Amino acid sequence: MFNVNKSALTKMQAIIIIGVIVIALVVGGTFYFIFLRPGMPSEIKIGTPTSLTGFLSRYYKARVWLLNKWADEVNAGGNILKCLWAEITS
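RE: above sequence
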């Protein structure tokens, strides 16, 4: 009666194919994030623009001292994010 194409996908076959693809993506993504992802760095360097000449040069020593004091306080109190070591570069 009806002209049925036997090679067409049924709804159930399409759902199964989509399910297999989703499962493969989840397993692959999980494997990547657990085993292949590069680790976090153990330290970060924080650069600061400081003026060595001109009007603002008089604040250079105070600014560097303050930033080093901040880094020492952060490193002594559990670090940044509990795993990163802060170092000031100028």
